[in-house]
Amino acid sequence: MSEMSSTEQQPETEIDLAAAEALLGTDADRFKHDYLEVRGLRVEFDGFVAVRDVDLTVTQGDLRFLIGPNGAGKTTLIDAVTGLVRATGSVSFGRTALLGRSTHRIARAGVGRTFQTASVFEELTVLQNLDIAAGARRAPLTLLRRRPATPEAVEHALETVGLTALRDVPAGVLAHGQKQWLEIGMLLVQDAHLLLLDEPVAGMTQAEREETGQLLRRIGSQRVVVVVEHDMEFLRSFADSVTVMHQGRVLAEGTVNEVQNDPAVVEVYLGAPTQGDLA
Amino acid sequence: MTVLTTLLRPGRTRTLAAFGLAAVLLLLAPLVLSPFRLDLLAKFLCLAMVAVGIGLAWGRGGLLTLGQGVYFGLGAYLMAMHLKLADAGPGGVPDFMLLYGTGQVPGWWEPLRSPVSAILLILVVPAALAALLGWAVFTRRVRGAYFAILSQALAAAFAILLIGQQQTTGGTNGLNGFRAFFGYDLADPVNKQMLYLIAAAVLLLMVAIVRQLTVSRFGELLVAVRDQEDRVRFLGYDPAAVKVVAYVVAAVMAAVGGALFVPIAGIVSPADVGVVPSIGFLIGVAIGGRATLLGPVLGSIAVSWAQTSISEQFPSGWIYFQGALFILVIAFLPGGLASVAGKLRRRAPEGSPA
């Protein structure tokens, strides 16, 4: 899974949690209480119902993991929240209703996401990637000028995800794990308050997973974070709570322990076979 | 200190040097070329203006604009209409209308009588059409080959429309026989030379504009939209808006090229605006290197020059040569001839001045 060859030639990169402070704000902001609320969500593709009757509430400070077998509707749920697919029901973030808005307006309302395959702008440098992510609220005419200096938020994000030394490198040559980190950095400078991460540690080394988990936990204390993940060990280490989906519905919800001991969950997903996969 | 280091960055010095060299060469041309050849070069420069815009829209923005003949034609026809009205004098009727039409100037020609409003319309009409069309197409997420086919169909329709309106557009013959350009006699070689210099200056200005757009934050965003449109959307931008800007800039550049082409070539007809010339614009850009700054300009001029000289030798040979060249470049050199320099530089030993 992990891509050893490319990581070896590059300077070591490390997550810097202290730098995240400047981006996330201080603890005083913690009591703003953003939350994601999904009610009766239904997504249908040509008669096939991919997601049905989904209710979901995720609050700030609750690092939520979303799990389920392939085809359970996890990614479709994220697609619906971010406006990529049509859905009925209601989705709101804080006081903002999200359903029916176009994708870029949902993003401007503070919703950010990553994709299963790291999708960074490969021909642009790490710095340019972050600068674009930071710039959606810039006045159109200022775009016609060259970047005067590195914006402060971008500087902090570079430090947070440990890519300061690689700032002028095209994002396409980054190692897989570094690309994933760059994506998280982009969400941070984008100033997303709801972060939807689709398999953020897929293909990472054990050390990288550990660091990513710490960072997500740090972000989760001040943002609403939903992580779709298959890696059970990662989930046990970092999840505050878990929502299990199966065939488009929410099957169970609770702490890692509660969910693991839920007979219905064990039956469809978490049982012995999965443990065996993890070795 | 930062200013100094930015100025001395290899990218910028090289661009400035290339820009200066191009300016000197363009200024020297009138001294070495016969009036006939200079006139040809001036024509090529006008066609190169279209290429500069395509370089931005296609090379940086990934918009395969197969119908730039429409905007070139709009600029050209608006200018030609103004020149015809100016030749006819205040309240006069252009000669071809007396021959084929009612002998009355149609109402929609009248705004072009005044030189100021003619120049404004040459800039505004293509920009407005491109903005309207671009908005309609890009917000519906029409892209790739579908956009290319759509823009080409538009070029075909535009040419057919012009042919059908003989009384008001000159039909297949187009508009020709201009005597003066904003009061300057077009038969005088000095004025022809002036037109060449105007074309050269405008082309350099356009290259400078595209260079500024490319290095700006907009340029980075445009590349981001080209490569990962959805990702850009999830960052809170509307990719359609970014594309529309690039498309409008390309359209205006094509229109200005068309407007200057008219007094230099002395004629514009539907044959200059249809599908074939629209593809021709693109071929120069592809051969020169669509993603580079000067590639489209040099490629376009080279293709125009080759077309003229090959057609002089083998009147029907050009079309085959053009097709073969296009296939060769797309198959073996997708980055265009400009990428050859980059490939050679990479082979050169480390540390040698590039």
From TrEMBL, chain A:
All residue ranges annotated as the ABC transporter domain in the record: 36-272
GO MF annotation, one: ATP hydrolysis activity
Superkingdom of source: Bacteria
Assigned keywords, A-Z: ATP-binding, Nucleotide-binding, Transport
GO annotations of cellular component type: plasma membrane
PROSITE patterns according to UniProt: ABC_TRANSPORTER_2
Protein name: ABC transporter ATP-binding protein
Organism of provenance: Promicromonospora soli
Automatic annotation (TrEMBL), chain B:
MF annotations from Gene Ontology: branched-chain amino acid transmembrane transporter activity
Top-rank taxon: Bacteria
TM stretches of this protein: 15-33, 40-58, 118-138, 144-163, 194-213, 244-268, 280-306, 318-340
Segment forming the signal sequence: none
Location of this chain's protein in the cell: Cell membrane
GO CC field: plasma membrane
Any one Pfam family match given in the protein's UniProt record, by short name: BPD_transp_2
Topology with respect to the bilayer: Multi-pass membrane protein
Protein keywords: Cell membrane, Membrane, Transmembrane, Transmembrane helix
Protein name (Swiss-Prot/TrEMBL): Urea ABC transporter permease subunit UrtC
Organism: Promicromonospora soli
